[in-house]
Amino acid sequence: MESLDSTDLALLDQLQQDAGLTNQELAARVHVSPPTCLRRVQRLVQAGFIERRVAILDRDKLVEVLGHGLDAIVEVTLDRQDNASMEAFEARVAADEAVQQCYRVSPGPDFVLVIRAPDMPGYLALAQRLFTQDANVRNVKAYFAVRRAKFDPRVPLPRPARA
């Protein structure tokens, strides 16, 4: 699959909003038959356009059970920026469960991480295992979120032109 038509884009858009839709509900929303819908979604999965389907949890509801937790955006600068050093650091942080997102960036720091820790002691343990023990980490700058104004994991897709 090399290109996406308007039906493919509509399917992807609907699935980004609610991946729990039944095939019949999804087909009705994009105005195709259920067999066509199923075949197209399977093709989108096989082609890699749909990486995985997940549930997005309501953090406000989980506070009662898990506590508030701590969100941090962390800038990391390495001493050595050769490809092997960058890939080694990236693989190590990407494998850590507390690291929700990892970006290699330029200019500025080498990496920006989005981290979720249960509390400050949890963050300090993470900092010790990911940053302090790594001799190649030169600088770490952490920003702690006090409020999340927006969270939207959807990829913006072009809207089909109306006739």
From TrEMBL:
Entry's Gene Ontology BP terms: regulation of DNA-templated transcription; response to amino acid
Protein name, as recorded: Winged helix-turn-helix transcriptional regulator
Gene Ontology CC annotations of this record: cytosol
Entry's Gene Ontology molecular function annotations: sequence-specific DNA binding
Record flagged with keyword Transcription: yes
First and last residue of the signal peptide: none
All residue ranges annotated as the HTH asnC-type domain in the record: 4-71
Lineage summary: Bacteria, Pseudomonadati, Pseudomonadota, Betaproteobacteria, Burkholderiales
Gene source species: Ramlibacter pinisoli
Keywords, sorted A to Z: DNA-binding, Transcription, Transcription regulation
CDD domains attached to this UniProt entry: HTH_ARSR
